[in-house]
From TrEMBL:
Lineage top rank: taxon: Bacteria
Origin organism lineage: Bacteria, Pseudomonadati, Pseudomonadota, Gammaproteobacteria, Oceanospirillales
Subcellular location: Cell membrane
Transmembrane segments: 164-186
Pfam families: sCache_2
Protein name, UniProt field: Methyl-accepting transducer domain-containing protein
GO cellular component entries: plasma membrane
Length: 393
């Protein structure tokens, strides 16, 4: 705050000095323009040179500004033309200021160079003390004159010191309570931070760089400051990263196991592929076999159809045979009755030979009509043909 007040006071002093320098330059240039106007009138024949110069001197003598400030002039021979405290024609060649500088030769040099400001020491009217002063000088080459005016800057220094003291007083009145308040705020902030903010920034920088081994310096009873929480964060991060490393190791182990399993699976897959190839070959053979079996089945079906047809025809033949056998059985029954009748007749002695012959012929005729021969009756021997009958002598 004191530095700020001092800087503001210096800025204010520079502003005042600049305003003073601008003001004296304005005054000199104004008088310079008036004299140039008189020179133009002389050139136009409206005024004589002497009359114009006298009017110029009168104008310069009438100019007064500030705290008794004035305009003075001298020629190129360093002789005074007009000055409120010096006689006209006074030679100022050897005039030295308090610093030992030949003032008028320096003023003439600056004026002939185009005009400008000159700093020197001079005494106030009625005083003996050499005080710092700033003057602005301009040149009139047609007449060989130089015009100058100046202001004392000791009052500027006094104003600067007064302003500085005033500012310091205001600073003490307003700034002291503010400073105390800021001290309390800083103390509270420091307590909340847990230490110097630069140290907190250093701790955070170590953590950001990945250094979690840096021990944080904390006060004995610190349980809630920013540094305390930063330290907790560091410890938590260290534990978390340790867990991550452990988990990464487990993952690497699992990956190695998975790689082994994948290799084994790859081997088994190759074996399965070979088995599948063999299975495919077997399937092709099975397909051929099935196709062949299908052809055989078609052939068997054809044969079965033919067998079924043959069986049907056999069944029909069997039906015919059964019917024929029934007919034969009936015929056999009839024959048995006939035979029994014949037997009854044959056992009679008187008619046996004739009867027997007739019976045999009837049987032969019957047998000739039957599909099977010789015929065999039930419970009877096969009938043999009768021997030829012998004729009586």
């Amino acid at each position: 705050m004191l530095l700020l007040v001092g800087w503001l006071a210096l800025e204010n002093r520079q502003t005042i000095v600049s305003e003073r320098r601008d003001s004296i330059q304005y005054v000199v240039e104004s008088v310079h323009n008036q004299i140039e106007a008189l020179q133009e009138r002389v050139a136009a024949g409206e005024l004589s040179l002497e009359e114009a110069q006298q009017r110029a001197i009168d104008n310069m003598s009438s100019v007064s500004f500030g705290a008794g400030e004035y305009i003075f002039s001298f020629n190129d021979d360093l002789l005074v033309i007009s000055h409120p405290s010096r006689e006209s024609g006074t030679d100022m060649t050897d005039y030295l200021d308090a610093s030992g500088m030949a003032l008028y030769p320096e003023l003439l040099r600056v004026a002939q160079a185009g005009g400008g400001h000159v700093n020197y020491y001079s005494t106030r009217a009625g005083g003996d003390e050499q005080l710092p002063k700033t003057s602005y000088v301009a040149h009139l080459p047609e007449w060989g004159w130089s015009l100058a005016t100046g202001v004392y800057v000791d009052d500027i220094n006094e104003a600067f010191i007064t302003d500085l003291i005033h500012s310091i007083g205001i600073l003490l009145i307003i700034g002291l309570p503010v400073t105390l308040l800021m001290g309390l705020v800083i103390r509270d902030v420091s307590r909340r931070l847990g230490g110097d903010p630069r140290y907190a920034a250093s701790v955070v920088r170590h953590i950001a760089d990945g250094d979690l081994t840096q021990v944080t310096q904390l006060s004995a009873k610190d349980q809630e400051s920013l540094l305390f929480n930063i330290n907790r964060m560091r410890e938590t991060l260290a534990e978390t990263i340790g867990d991550i490393h452990h988990g990464a190791d487990q993952v690497n182990s699992g990956v190695e196991q998975i790689v082994g399993v994948n290799e084994e699976l790859s081997t088994r897959t190759e074996e399965q592929a070979a088995s599948l190839a063999e299975t495919a070959s077997s399937m092709e053979q099975l397909t051929a076999t099935v196709k062949q079996n299908a052809e055989h089945a078609d052939h068997a079906r054809t044969l079965a159809t033919r067998a079924a047809d043959s069986a049907q025809r056999g069944s029909d033949s069997m039906t015919t045979v059964i019917t024929t056998m029934g007919t034969i059985n009936e015929s056999a029954t009839q024959m048995s009755s006939i035979v029994n009748t014949i037997d009854g007749i044959a056992f009679k002695p008187t008619s046996w030979p004739l009867t027997r012959r007739w019976k045999l012929r009837a049987l032969e005729s019957k047998a000739a009509a039957s599909p099977s021969s010789p015929m065999r009756f039930a419970n009877s021997p096969a009938v043999r043909p009768l021997p030829p009958r012998k004729s009586k002598p």
